[in-house]
Amino acid sequence: MHHHCRRATRLSTPLSLRLGPLIPPPRSSHTHPPPPPPPFRRRPGKMPGAVIVHHHTRYKTYPGEVTGFVFLCCLIASVGGCIFGYDIGLTAGLTSTESFLAMFFPVIFEQQKERVITNQYCKFDSQVLTLFGSSLFLSAMVAAFFASPMARAFGRKWTLFLAAVAYLVGAILGGLAVNFPMLITGRLLLGVGVGLCIHASPLYISEMAPAQQRGMLNILFQLMITVGILSASLTNYWTSKITGGWGWRVGLAFGTVPSAVIALGSLAIPDTPVSLIVRGDAEAARATLAKIRGVDDVRAEFEDLTAASEESKAVAHPWRELFFGGKYKPQLTFALLIPFFQQLTGINVIMFYAPVLFKTVGFRQDASLVSSVITGLVNVFSTFVAIMTADKVGRRALFLQGGTQMIISQILVGTFIGLQFGLSGTGAMSEQYAMCIVLFVCVYVAGFAWSWGPMGWLIPSEVYPVAVRSAAQSLTVAVNMFFTAFISQIFLTLLCHLRFGLFYFFGGCVLLMTIFIATLLPETKCMPLEEVAHVWRKHWFWRKFVIDAGDARGAEMRKKIALEMS
Questions:
Q1: How would you class 537 by CB atoms within 10 Å of its CB: exposed for 0-12, middle for 13-18, buried for 19 or more?
Q2: 144-172 burial, b for 16+ CB within 10 Å, e for fewer?
Q3: Secondary structure, 3-state, 354-418
Q4: I need a labelling partner for 209 at 20 to 30 A (CA). Which of 49, 60, 315, 428 fits?
Q5: What are residue 54's phi and psi, to 5 degrees?
Q6: Considering only CA atoms, which of 249, 192, 199, 197 is closest in space to residue 228?
Q7: How far is Cα 272 from Cα 289, in angstroms, rounded to an integer?
């Protein structure tokens, strides 16, 4: 896959030249050429992973490999996505399980038994039930703001550990719940775990991965979200067969499995080199970098990481710098809009309420759960398309192709539902129309799975400079969780009032989002994190708002590092 990024031979240049054109090369008292750099030793059995980055019209390569160790570290961190996806899928089954409703929502349970609702669009409209589902996302939103100072002070690794512990306790409380306060306490703790995890996991992976494979490794996080959703769908189907009314407890308790994997795994993996440098442990950072790259000569990459981290240390208030610093307008824009747009695709309401949606269009209980399992399988396997292509065709191409596919499928789903139920919502869904709806929902899910799904997490995690990276990621997670909760809360009401037009609404949103991406998102594939900031200065629109990276602070930091390393 390496031929998809341009290569250049690493030249024997003085450090001052590698740090940028702002520092003049040191004077030399002789005219002899400088000695060649010592050869780096490549450990056998690994794939070469040198990175080439466009930097001030030239390309640089770091020696390194895709080692089994760095893959293992990223895989463990990516399990954080599994707990998020598991809850999305599980809640759909819980809110349609009679024994669960009878125990914790008896009033709603009795109302559903007594009422005869002929309007298929409104038969599941309940604000109380949707508030139960949304409570996790609101808790995650609050936790996301605490994740930034936590990750900055203690590192990405320990943030993952605390997230896993919070989710583990929440899953135990939920599985053992005997009353509503116990259930909701567990639910809120699950939200804390989700909020911390989806902040730390993408950051950890982006900072550990070689730039040329960063897209592939970062998408492991989205893959785990899809695995979590599929696991929950299978769990819902299996527990629905358990007699005695306690199957829902098994589903909630199963959340302890991925959280235990993260808790134990985070104790075995190192923190990221960037985090170690920022917290003052340069030697551990250099050793970690050598281990995850599989080579002994990591001087060039270490110097660039140190330069970026030194600049980060000068930022005492990253939130203030992000909002008012002046040079982070593009990053701030995408920190706010990418997670907002991701929710406007409508994916979470499709996955969150898949059993309810399929029951609405005429499927029986078992058939609706089977259909949600099918969409879960499509979600998982389609994510592999993004894993294989993100570092080849680029982020923009996946956004544009997937967006187009989602628009078409949403229009068709809305049309089929409208033809059967019309505006009144009365009538029955024929088997042929029901199968067409499942088919195009799967087409929609596939388009999301290789575009807005993985790219919605990858882009925010890689476009921020280290000075504001943790704060910006917190903002991204908080916005994502807020709009996840908001859309989840109003989805059934929107379905009741907009009817089949709801799918046209989401299709129109995806159209606007696709135009936004086509015009305003630059390509970032194969670029090391510390160099991504330069891409904004070349963009036709963002260059008007970005202060040149070679400002006074940047020049001062580069000179300082050059003197220390010379």
A1: middle
A2: bbbbbebbbeebbbbbbbbbbbbbbbbbb
A3: HHHHHHHCCCCHHHHHHHHHHHHHHHHHHHHHHHHHCCCCCHHHHHHHHHHHHHHHHHHHHHHHH
A4: 315
A5: -75, 115
A6: 197
A7: 8
26 three-state secondary structure: coil
Degrees, nearest 5: CA angle 319-325-329? 95
pLDDT at position 361 is: 57
Instruction: Report d(CA 70, CA 288) in Å as an integer.
Output: 10
CATH of span 68-317+325-529? 1.20.1250.20
136: CB partners within 8 A, 6+ apart: 87, 91, 187, 188, 190, 191, 194
Token pair, residue 545, equals: 């708002």
- 8 Å CB contact between 161 and 267: yes
Name the amino acid, one letter, at 191. G
Collapsing DSSP to helix, strand or coil, 66 comes out as strand
Determine contact, residues 240/369, Cβ cutoff 8 Å. yes
The residue to which tokens 């998809």 are assigned: 4
Residue predicted with more confidence, 325 or 558: 325
* CB neighbours of residue 462 within 10 Å: 25
Residues 111/255, Cβ–Cβ less than 8 Å: no
Rounded to an integer, what distance in angstroms lies between the CA atom of residue 454 and that of residue 444? 15
What is the C-alpha to C-alpha distance for residues 420 and 541, in angstroms, rounded to an integer? Answer: 46
Confidence at residue 157, expressed as pLDDT on a 0 to 100 scale: 95
From 151, 144, 104, select the one nearest 128 (Cα to Cα).
104
Helix, strand, or coil (residue 338): helix
Q: Which of 32-36, 290-294, 421-425, 450-454 has the lowest mean pLDDT?
A: 32-36
- Name beta bridge partners: 48: 65
CB contact burial 370-407 (16+ within 10 A = b; e otherwise): bbbbbbbbbbbebbebbbebbbeebbbebbbbbbebbb
**What residues have CB less than 8 Å from 108, skipping those under 6 apart?**
101, 126, 128, 129
pLDDT in tens, 145-186: 999 999 988 999 999 999 999 999 999 999 999 999 999 999
Is this prediction's pTM over 0.85?
no
